[in-house]
Design brief:
Layout (H helix, E strand, L loop, with lengths): L7 E10 L2 E11 L3 E6 L6 H9 L6 E6 L2 E2 L4 H5 L2 E4 L11 H12 L7 H7 L16 H14 L4 E5 L7 H16 L3 E5 L10 E6 L2
Helix pairs in contact: 3-5, 4-5
């Protein structure tokens, strides 16, 4: 059984924006094979919480721990364990989808299970789109390119901000499949979504902000 030291934990987190407290006393423990779904109305701090878990935003109170250690004490090691896909695609618009994945693999390494070409095929990007600049793709196609990074990554922790944005029904189903497969391999994921998420067979925690 997983121990507390093996996962991601938040302890009494609070975050402020200007003079406004977005949330306070947020705590959870995420273990191997589990998914945390964060819900709440617009403006409640979901994206801020994800950025805090990534170490990109400093909390007003509390701390984030990975394997029992404050992420600020060994952030370089923690960063290798996570992959973050934000609300925006986070891809280079002037590069092709294939070039984006090759670049991402060079920076973060790969799990060796699939090649960049295979990742794009699995994520459902039309073959004819692989070699044109991403700026010419639709919003849904750019989202698929961003999510294809998950197929290459060896990171144990996925942090995904509204991963279903701009995707059609088949795309949303594919993302759900990726999350189920990642959890089945012992991975962990933190996800925000306005949609109901079908993760049948996975251990899912829910956290409501606001």
């Amino acid at each position: 059984m997983s121990t507390v030291a093996e996962g991601l934990s938040a302890e009494a987190l609070a975050c402020r924006r200007a003079e406004r407290t977005l949330f306070r006393d947020v705590s959870f423990m995420l273990r191997s094979g589990e998914v945390l779904q964060i819900e709440g109305p617009n403006g409640c701090g979901k994206t801020t919480l994800l950025r805090t878990l990534c170490g990109l935003t400093r909390p007003a109170a509390g701390c984030v721990r990975w394997a029992g250690e404050d992420i600020r004490d060994n952030y370089a090691a923690y960063a290798t364990e996570l992959v973050y896909v934000g609300h925006h695609a986070g891809i280079k618009e002037e590069l092709t989808p294939l070039e984006n994945l090759v670049f991402a693999a060079a920076l973060g390494g790969t799990n060796g299970r699939v090649t960049p070409e295979q990742a794009l095929q699995r994520i459902g990007l039309p073959f004819e789109c692989e070699d044109i600049p991403c700026r010419k793709l639709s919003a849904g196609q750019r989202r698929r390119v961003a999510l294809a990074r998950l197929l290459l990554s060896s990171s144990r922790l996925w942090i995904l901000d509204e991963p279903f944005t701009a995707l059609d029904v088949s795309g949303r189903g594919l993302v759900e499949s990726l999350l189920r497969e990642h959890a089945a391999r012992g991975g962990m994921a933190v996800v925000t979504s306005h949609h109901a998420v079908d993760l049948a067979g996975s251990t899912v925690q829910q956290l409501y902000l606001g």
